[in-house]
């Protein structure tokens, strides 16, 4: 994960129009179509637009999954996993989800709150985990709610030149922070007695059908994972994360998954199954998706784990992912029960996503109305 990732994926990559497009007036062509015709037009649009963009932007591989009417309706893969071997991407290819890990972890935390293992508003220092920061009494104010809404006051990532510190009173404003997620992850591991990977597999990934998703590099990743590529489309080495790596970064950005498996998680947000040992109640889902802190822009706020975007036509949830050589994005409408997950294995993937997805989700909105 890059230490320079300080803002959400949407703002960093210049995709502000993407959010508004989901509920904006449909394009004139799409607006004239209904039902199956609108869906066919959407698929044709994607299959015609994505390959030329990949060639132009030197992005070797793209994979996406679309949700319509509360179900995964379409999966498609383009290009190659590795530019040197030319092995094709397919819908089983695994990508780094990067910061899209955060909503997944947030969901699991909220379930622990339902079980009274954690509490959203209890200061994290009371749980007895190893100290995270000394010398600032405001550390005693930080709660799970602050972490999940990016209002701890902690910076994104510490460095040699920027030691960890609290930049403002927790809960008073927004500042994107991976460090906060790292601390909350350590608290979860402490109170549950489980390292993050077995905890997430048992409490979310496996119950939701995300059976190949995970954090620590394994044989499945070795066989199925895409390789990252630089801005020139040249392959780089996969970051084969160890247990020590994910003990710090898993919750914030180490999830590896396919778009289809991530879409299974997204479905639990927009078309949830009844609450059970693993799934949230309607009240918790509502809490996760309500604004907790305003972002410094006219349209965004932070829920718990998700970025929330207000548009004239409704509300959407979204999150991006940005690791070196991997860019990804997930966006959904709870009201319309539609959404999209796209993952790429090129450093120019953010630009590619911005170029095609805004129109695609607009068309998806039309197709999902019927």
List the helices and strands and how they pair.
Elements (H helix, E strand, L loop, with lengths): L8 H4 L3 H6 L6 H4 L3 H23 L3 E8 L2 E12 L4 E2 L6 E4 L2 H14 L29 H5 L29 H15 L3 H10 L13 H6 L18 H11 L1 E3 L1 H12 L11 H7 L4 E2 L5 E3 L4 E5 L2 E10 L2 E8 L4 E7 L4 H19 L3
Antiparallel strand pairs: 1-2, 1-11, 2-3, 4-5, 6-7, 7-8, 8-9, 9-10, 10-11
What is the architecture at the second tier of CATH? Answer: 3-Layer(aba) Sandwich
User: Runs with pLDDT <50, length 5+?
Assistant: 1-34
DSSP E strands, number = 11
Counting structural domains, the number is 1
Distance between the termini: 40 Å
Percent helix, as a range, is 25-40%
- Summarize the helix and strand pattern as letters: HHHHEEEEHHHHHHEHHEEEEEEH
Annotated CATH topology: Beta-lactamase
CATH superfamily: DD-peptidase/beta-lactamase superfamily
CATH class (first level) name? Alpha Beta
Mean pLDDT score: 90
Q: Kindly provide the radius of gyration, computed on alpha-carbon positions and rounded to a whole number of angstroms.
A: 20 Å
What count of helical segments does DSSP give?
Answer: 13
């Amino acid at each position: 994960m890059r230490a320079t990732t300080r803002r959400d994926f949407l703002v960093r990559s210049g995709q502000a129009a993407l959010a508004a497009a989901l509920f904006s007036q449909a394009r004139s062509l799409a607006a004239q179509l209904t039902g199956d015709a609108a869906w066919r037009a959407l698929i044709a649009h994607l299959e015609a637009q994505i390959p030329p963009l990949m060639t132009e932007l030197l992005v070797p591989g793209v994979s996406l999954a679309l949700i319509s009417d509360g179900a995964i309706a379409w999966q498609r893969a383009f290009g190659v996993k590795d530019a040197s071997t030319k092995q094709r991407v397919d819908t089983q290819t695994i990508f780094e989800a990067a910061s899209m890990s955060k909503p997944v972890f947030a969901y699991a935390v909220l379930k622990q709150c339902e079980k009274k293992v954690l509490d959203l508003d209890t200061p994290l220092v009371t749980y007895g985990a190893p100290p995270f920061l000394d010398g600032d009494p405001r550390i005693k104010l930080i709660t799970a709610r602050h972490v999940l809404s990016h209002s701890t006051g902690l910076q994104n990532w510490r460095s040699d030149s920027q030691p960890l510190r609290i930049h403002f009173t927790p809960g008073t404003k927004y500042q994107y922070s991976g460090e906060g997620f790292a601390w909350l992850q350590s608290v979860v591991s402490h109170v549950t007695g489980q390292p993050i990977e077995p905890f997430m597999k048992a409490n979310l990934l496996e119950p939701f059908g995300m059976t190949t998703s995970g954090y620590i590099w394994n044989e499945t990743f070795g066989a199925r994972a895409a390789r990252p590529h630089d801005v020139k489309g040249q392959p780089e080495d996969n970051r084969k994360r160890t247990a020590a790596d994910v003990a710090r970064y898993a919750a914030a950005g180490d999830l590896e998954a396919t778009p289809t498996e991530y879409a299974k998680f997204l479905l639990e947000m927009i078309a949830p199954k009844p609450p059970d040992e693993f799934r949230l109640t309607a009240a918790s889902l509502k809490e996760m998706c309500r604004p907790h802190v305003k972002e410094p822009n006219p349209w965004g706020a932070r829920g718990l784990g998700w970025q929330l975007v207000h548009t004239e036509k409704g509300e959407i949830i979204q999150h991006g992912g940005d690791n070196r050589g991997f860019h990804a994005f997930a966006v959904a409408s709870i009201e319309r029960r539609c959404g999209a997950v796209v993952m790429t294995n090129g450093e120019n993937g953010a630009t590619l996503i911005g170029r095609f997805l805004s129109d695609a989700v607009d068309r998806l909105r039309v197709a999902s109305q019927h």
